[in-house]
Design brief:
Elements: H1 2-16, E1 108-115, H2 123-126, E2 133-136, H3 143-152, E3 156-163, H4 182-195, E4 201-206, H5 214-226, E5 230-233, H6 242-249, E6 253-255, E7 258-259, H7 266-281, E8 286-291, H8 295-310
Parallel strand pairs: 1-2, 1-8, 2-3, 3-4, 4-5, 5-6, 7-8
Helix pairs in contact: 4-5, 5-6
Amino acid sequence: MLLVAIAALLVVAIALLPPKVGDPQPASLAEPVEEPVVTVPAATRSPGGDYSAPDTGGRSDEPRVATRPATTSEPAAVPRATEPVATARALPWWMPVDLPDPALRGRLHLILDDAGNTGDEMPPFLGLPIPFAVAVLPQLPYSTDAARRSIAAGKEVILHQPMEAIGGADPGPGWIGPGHSREQIVATLTANLLSVPGAIGANNHMGSLASSDEPTMRLVLDFFHANGMFYLDSRTISRTVARRVAREVGIPFAERNVFLDNVRERDAILTALSQALELSNRGEDVFMIGHVTVPLLADVLREAVPVLLGHEYEFRPLSTAVQVFGDDTVAGRIRDGSR
């Protein structure tokens, strides 16, 4: 009997010993091996409701279940929503919200008027990394210098031809108007071109009276056409006849869409630039006129041009856009009154 009792005590002692690591356990004593389904925070869900599960190496149609080893009591780590690698930088306020494919946009053409007044007005603009045309006023102290410096910087030069304005404002040296004879107009235009070497085209300075007078514009455009030049109508008055006469003469022609610096304040210039971009986004070639006499314009362009190039807007030389008429693809828009 004593031996039986000792044997029974040994059996009980052995049963009460803790199991070794790795030994199988009865199902009733085993630690559960699965945690409840993890609820993924809303920040990690995609708009369609699927999980954006981290580090899966592939996609699963079933909710992920977090598990832990049977030999530890540490809770399983809950997947954390990951921060985006980079966030899209907001566009400047003056950039259009919707940017169409660059191939569908119209090209941008910049013309800078009123060069030739001083010797220090050009350098702030000539460093811009885009093509543009410099419109040089004739017979001024720095007319020839402005033309030569612009050409040396790789920019196109056109004659900024002074024309008579409504109201009698002085257009400056070398002006023409409806009261001048053919001989006077030809002689004046010839002298003006001599003071602006390298000019390949022309546009009007002022000219609300002259550009609305058909006989005057016919003489002017015949002269420029005979000299192998093109003409850009600055559209200083809505009833300009330049387009119609240019079509009849057959001279390469374009029209101004936007004045950038009619209001010489930073936000106003950027607003005008934004209008030009909206036209470009509709597929129109855009002709923007500013003035070298506005230092603020140079500051704004140095800020804006890298942004525009970064979003693949294309600046082109003015000479590549003027067209011989057969259609109205370069329709201009007048947004201001005559001057």
